[in-house]
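In response to reviewer comment 3 from the previous cycle, which asked for concrete evidence that the modeling workflow produces usable outputs, we include below a single protein chain processed end to end. The sequence was submitted unchanged, and the resulting structure tokens are shown without manual editing.
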Amino acid sequence: MRKTAFSQLASNHAKDSKNRFFYADLQSNAPNLDFANQRALMQCEGDVYYMADRNWNRIDIQNIKDYYSSVSGNVVLGIDGIIDEVWLLVKERRSVSECSIYESMSEFGKLILNREGSGMGVEILRKHRNWGGFTCNTGNALSCLGIKPVMIGMFGREAIDPVFKEFPNSCKLISLGDPAVCHIFEFDDGKIMFPYVESIISVNWNSLEDKLDSDALKDIFSTPDIITIGYWSSMTEFDAILENICEYVDNKRPIKFFFDFADLKKRTRSALEFTLNNLKRLNQIAPMTLSLNDNEAETLFSCFSEKCGADAQEYEASLDSVRRRIGIDELIVHTPHFAAGASVAEGTASIPQRHCIKAKKTVGAGDTFNGGYISASLGSLDILSRLAVANSASSFYVSRGCAPGRNDLIDEMTAIMG
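The workflow returned the following structure tokens.
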């Protein structure tokens, strides 16, 4: 669906009443959203719009509430460590204390195109400096939901950088060196990221062996319920690291792997194919889940001559086809409008995402989705419930600017379900 069409549709109704319910015929008003042959019930609450459909109505909220009252598990996360420097771009400076900013990526993009062949300078305003990257964002989401993960990454060579100071209280940190830095320019409808990841690119298995002896490595990688690694796109030694980790996996324990590759186009297609072949082989040692966003899914699907599909049902079919051809247990995708998954044991499922017109925070939303999904994978929740949990975790994060706790998660799901 075109975001502008959806936003206009929602805002027109929001003007009538802040808490008014209305029906949107998705086939005529939003043909590319998803669930094209269904009608979605939407509730306006300020800048947030909820969607309920038959799949949300299948969610047993009491079962999920009971699950999170007692869930526990051992999760190992790695291997990055990033400090996010988040900036806003000044459009017009009116005074020392007053200015306007670029709100849309397209508006700023037009400025760049108009200055082609010349030069330009744009003032930037710091929004915040914070920890970021896969390991911290996903680890934070897990810790907020009551899981205390082991986090392996780049948090400081001599001492833990102050930006990561909150994590030792909620996670076990193992630092391999100094963090990378990512400069992020944030807009209302997206973000542009410029990561300087030299310290991450150089990470290899020797980096872990230099820090940890064989007994420590065995203790870390033979005991977890889930080992999760990201981002493949910034880890040139991903395959060698994974191979070595698998040497420590205890085949007698029900262990799982979870991966987020991030920007697939950052590396060559041959590198992607090599890694996918590795995952197929190693999936025999432990079941593997690969998580993608919509852009990453489009890139991956094209490698197999598959289309993403115009609606969620078509998306599910393509997702399962690609999963089978890769040869892994599970493939999941999160988009701004829905999440979908394909599992060798459970088949396919999809569920709508809540749309937030005015996001509080977008950087880290995908990692928060991952954290929600991983937390829901530590027990017996089915794939539809796992996707619902992950969607709710990320929608809470985008609309509130922080990851949800257990009660927040249940409240968010209850609100979406109406």
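The CA atoms of residues 157 and 177 lie 4 Å apart. We consider this sufficient to address the reviewer's concern, and the full set will be provided in the supplementary archive.
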